[in-house]
Amino acid sequence: MTPAGMPQPLQPQRLIFAGIDIGTLTCRLLIAEILNAGRLHELFSDRRILRLGQGVDRDRRLAAEAMDRVIATLQEWRKVIDRNEVVACAAVATSAVRDAQNSAEFLDRVKREAGLEVEVITGEEEARRILLGIRSGLAAGVAGILALDIGGGSTEFILDQPGRPPIVRSIDIGVVRLSERILQHDAPTEEEIRQAREWIRKNTASAMTGMHRKAGFTFIGTAGTITSLAAMAQKLPAYEPARIHNYRLKRDTVMRLEQELLSRTSTEREGMPGLERGREEVIAAGAVILRTVMEMLEQDEVLVSDFGLREGVVIDLAKRMGNDERGDQ
């Protein structure tokens, strides 16, 4: 007990940061405390399938109703952030906002109506922060990795090997873009599936040029398509991060799920065990991307990571804040 009249010892400030990932299909929020060795302790998280990128591949514009959905959610999240003693917040936008001709209108609205500054990041910068997030959730001893992030508008490949700088590649194929451009029938036709595979193979081959992998690397997958397929493989009645993170998803299982999804309409996919509501229209496209990439890379399984871009946004923000403070000393 502190003697009467003596000043109370100062309590160390909790390092709480918020990260927002404004994706083409899904928006994600993470509020986390940074602990020793840069580990994350989640305080609050949320994710919403808002489909900001609807029609962007065709129209090159963000639809007004899509912007409204996202901004309404960001207004909610801003209140949550303000209640959690957050030291700093970073929000990033990816493929849909990169591609839209009216992105400035959206960014201005977010600033005025939700009080958030949004950074539009390149595919390569997106991949760098995805890698930060993935690495933070890996078990000790995992060295070389090839990571795959299947998004709504783009897909990122990240090769990270000890002693070498990471190699990151981004291709403009994602579940929303593939669904709107090629897999237009519900359910997709055989010709559409053939065209989709050809497009994916061509772009994957281009992305992997110069990515010379050493033996023994770990193939890792992150983001909603892959985590959803992991949940479906286990027939989870509700999303359970602990059962999805570090789950080993076999290629045979991906092929089986792909066939089930492609044979059904989006309405018939509703209620499939493990499938998140709102993902019915695009999950088949995601399965086609994952299966085709695994076949091209000759991978029999993918290690699923529930950590990705939003965790990387928080870690990157914390590192930058730490560097700024050291620079001010």
Strand order of the largest sheet: 8-7-6-9-11-10
Q: Report the structural category.
A: alpha/beta
The residue fraction in helices comes out at 40-55%
* Record field, number of beta strands: 11
User: Given the C-alpha coordinates, what overall shape results?
Assistant: globular
H/E series, N to C? EEEHHEHHEHEEEHHEHHEHHHEH
The first-level CATH class name of the largest domain: Alpha Beta
Could you name the CATH topology of the largest domain?
Answer: Nucleotidyltransferase, domain 5
Write the layout of secondary structure elements.
Layout: E1 16-22, E2 26-34, E3 40-49, H1 56-59, H2 64-83, E4 88-93, H3 95-99, H4 103-114, E5 118-120, H5 123-136, E6 145-150, E7 155-160, E8 167-171, H6 175-181, H7 190-208, E9 218-222, H8 224-233, H9 241-244, E10 248-250, H10 251-262, H11 266-269, H12 283-296, E11 301-305, H13 309-328
Parallel strand pairs: 1-4, 4-5, 6-9, 9-11
Antiparallel strand pairs: 1-2, 2-3, 6-7, 7-8, 10-11
Helix pairs in contact: 2-4, 5-13, 6-12, 7-12, 8-12, 10-12
